[in-house]
Amino acid sequence: MKSSSNGFIKSNRYLNWLPTLPLVPFLVALFVVLPVIVVASSLFTPNREIWEHLWSTILPEMTRNSIMLVVGVGFGTLILGVSLAWLVTAYNFPGRNTFEWLLILPMAIPTYILGFVYMATFDFAGPVQTFLRSHFDNLAWFPEIRSGGGAILVMTLVLYPYVYLLAKAGFQEQSQNYIDSARTMGYRPLKIFFKLALPLARPSIAAGVLLAIMEALTDFATVRFFNFPTFSDGILRIWHGLMDLPAASELAGLVAIFALILILGEQTLRGRSRFFQSTGKAQGISKISLNGFKAWIATLVCSLVIIISFFLPVAQLFSWTLLELGNLDANVFAVYTEFAFNSIKLSFLAAIFATAIGLILASAIRSSKSKFGFFLGKLATIGYAIPGAVIGVGIILLLSFIDHSLNEVYIWLGGTAIGLVFTGSLIGLIYAYIVRFMAVSFNSVDSSLQKIKPNVTSAARVLGANQWRVTWQIHLPLITPGIFVGFIMVFVDVMKELPVTAMLRPFGYDTLAVWVWQMAAESIWTGAALPALAIVATGLLPVYILTRVFSSSKS
Amino acid sequence: MKNFLLNKKWLILIFVVLTIAVLTTFLPTDKEEVVYVYTARHYGIEPVFIEFTNETGIVVKHTTASDAALRERIKAEGRHTNADVYITVDAGNLWLAVKDGLLRTIESSVVEKNIPANLRDPENQWFALTERVRTILYHPDRVSPEELSTYEALADPKWYGRLLMRPATHPYTQSLVASLIVAHGEEESEKIVRGWVANNPTLIDSDTRILETLAAGKGDVAIANHYYLGRLLESNPEFPVRIFWANQNVGERGAHVNITGVGVTKYSKNYQNAIRFVEWLSSPRGQKLFADSNHEFPANPTVEPHSIIAGFGSFVRDPINLTEYGRLQGAAVKLLNRVGYR
After folding, report:
1. What is the number of structural domains in chain B?
2. What is the ipTM of this complex?
3. This prediction's pTM
4. pLDDT digits (tens, 9 = 90+) for B263-292
5. Distance CA B206, CA B223 (A)
6. Which of A292, B115, B145, B208 has the least CB density, counted as fewest CB within 10 Å?
7. A526 — contact with chain B (CB < 8 Å)?
C-alpha cells in the first residue's frame, strides 16, 4: 500500500507546513484587533482644535491622575499581592489553609461596587462619619474618601488578587532545592525571598501587576465616584460632553499605545528571566511554621486584608438588602433568576471562546517563533487596555458595516433585506468580550506554555508529530491548569463587565451588572445591593474552584 | 485532594447542562405586535410599559444604556436598525439625534393636542414626556429663603465653602451652563461659573448624595434636580431639605428645565406601533404613570403632577428653546474646562 502511505505523508507534510506560516495567528489576531483598529484609526486625522483645548485645560490633570493611579495601584497590588502570596506559600500559621483561598475572594467584587460601597459608607453622609460626629466635635482629620487616595485604595483592594494568584503560582512552581541550598548556606528568610524567590517569580508577578494596572486604567465608573478624572474618564468626557467621538477615539488610541509599550516592556522583563519546568510539576516550597507572636501577626494581617476588602463591604450590601426586602416585588426572584442566568450564560460562552482563541493564538505563535508572530500576540491582547465603552463603539461600527454589506449582497442577489444579523446579537456581544478579555485568557495559556521546555516540543516535532498533534497531545495536558485559570478569570471578568454589556446586549437582555448600574446611577444603593450580592455570589463559585485547582495541583 | 467539583463527571455534567440551556435560548419566539424602545431613562419605566401592553396588546421590548451610546448605536445600525423609539433624559441628545438624521416627523394630531408647542420639536421629530427642574435646594436651619435668589447669585463670595454641586462631567451641569450662555453670552457666563468655582463647591456625582450630604450637615446650598427631593421625601416626609425655585423675580428668566423626551426613529419598522406608543405616553393615562414613577412634571398640562412635587408650589420656567442645550453643550463643556470646574 505504498501509494496510500505516500498520500498520508503528503497530507501530513501539508499539515506541518500550515501553522509555520504566520497565517493562523495573523487571522486570529486580526479578528481580535480589528475593532480596536476601527476606533484607533482616527489617530491619523487628529482634531487639532480639540487637542489644543484639552491640553490647555484638563489633559495635564488627567495625565497626572492616570500616572498616580497606575503607580498607586501598581505598588499597592504588588506589595499586598506578593507579600500575602509569600506568606501563605512559605509559612504555616493559624488559619493558613483557609486564608489561602479566602484572600482571592475580593476578585469577585466588581470595582465599581466596592467603589460605591466605600463611598456611601465613609463619605460625609455615610454611617461612619455620622457616628463619629455624634461623639467628636472636630472631624477635620477624617480623610476625604472622594479623592485619588480613595480610588487607589478601592482599586488596590479588589485588584490585588490578580497579583496574589499569579505570584502564588510563581512561588509554588519553584523548586525546593534552591531554597534548601540557600537555607543551608545560612541565608536569612528575608534574603532568600528577595534574592531568590522574588526574582524567580518575577514573570508571574509582572503579569499580575500588568493586569491590575490595565484594569485600573480602563475603569471609568469608580474614578467618577471618587472625582478623580483619568484618561478613561476623559475619553467619556470628550465623547459625551464635547460630543466628539473621533476625538475620544484618538485619546483611547493614545492610551492603547501607552499600554502596548507597557505590555512589551513586561515581556522583555519576562524574557530576561526565563525558566522552564522540565518535568510535570515542581514539588513546591516546604513551609516554615511560625510560632507565638509572629504566627498571630500573620493571622492578623490576613484577617485585616480580607475583612476590609471583602467581609465589610459584603456586610454593608447585606444590610442594604435587608432594608430593601420590604419593597421587593413578588416576582423579584423570577427576575433575578433570569438576570443571573443571562449573566452566567454570557460569561460561560465568552470564557469558552476566549480560552479557545487564546489557546490557538498562543500555540501558533509559540511554534512560529517569529518576532512578527510575537508582536501579533501582544497586539491581540490590547483590548484589555481600552475602556469597554470604546471597544463597544468599535464593535458596533464593525458589525453594522458587515450587516449592511450582507444586506446589500442579499438584495443584489435578488432577496429582500434581512436586517441586522450581528449588531445587537449575542454573537456581537460575545465578540466584544473576546476582544476585551483576550489578554486574560491568552496570558494564562501563554505563561503556562512558556514554562514547557522548548526541547520537549522539538523532540516531538523531530519524531514527526505535526503542530496540531503537538498541541493536542503534548502541550494541552501540560497546560490544563493555565487554560482552566484563564477560563475562570474571563468568566469572572464578564460577570462584572458593564459598559460593553450595556451597549451591545440584545433587546430585553438584562444582566446582574446592568441592573446594578441602573440602580447605582440613580444612587439607589439599597436597590443595587441585591444584584451586587448576586454578582459576588455567582463570582465566588468559580473563584472557589480556582483555588481548589491551585491547591490541588500542588499536592 | 479530590473535591466533588473537580470530579470529571461533575464538570462534564455541568458543562452539558449549561450548553443545552444556552442553546435553548436561541430558539425563535412567536410573532407578536412589538415596539422596540432604546431608552436612557430606566428608573421606574417597566410598570409603564407593562400597562401599555395590557391596554393595547403591543409588547414593548426595550434596552437601556447611556444617551450617547444608544444614539451611536442607532446611527451605526442605520436603515436596518431595530429601534422604533428613542427615549433620552436630555434635550441636547434629541437635538443631536435630529442633526444626525436619526429621527422622523411624528405625524400625530393626538400628540400635537396633548403636548404644548414649546415642549415639541418645531418639526415634530421629538417631544417632551416630562419636565425636570434643576434648581436651588437648601437646609432651612442654616439658610433662610430670603438669602436666595438666582443661580448667578451663588457666585457671591458669601457662599464660600457652602455649596454642593454636581461635577462638570454630568449633562445636568452642562445644560445648566448652556442656559447661562443663552442668557448672558459666553464671557459673562464664564465669570459666573468662575465665581462658583471660587466658592470651592463640594462636587458629588449623585444628586441624591448631594441632598443627603446637605441633610447631614455639610454645605448649606445645593443645585440639584427637583425629583430627587421628591423621592427622598416619599421615603422620609421629615427629610430636612427645602426647595427654592430659582430666578423667579420680575425680569429674571425662571428656573432651568430639562426634559425626558421621545422620538421615533427614521427607519422604524413598526411605525404604527411606535406612533400608538408615543401617543399613549402623551395621553393622560401614560403621562400620569410615566411622570409619577419619577416625580417629574408631566408635559401634558391637563395632567396633575404628583402630590409631593405639587407641594413644591408653582414657578416660572426659563422659556429657552430646548434645542439650545444641544447646540451649546460643546461650548458649555469647554467653558467648564477653562474655569477649572471639575
Report:
1. 2
2. 0.85
3. 0.87
4. 999 999 999 999 999 999 999 999 999 999
5. 11
6. A292
7. no
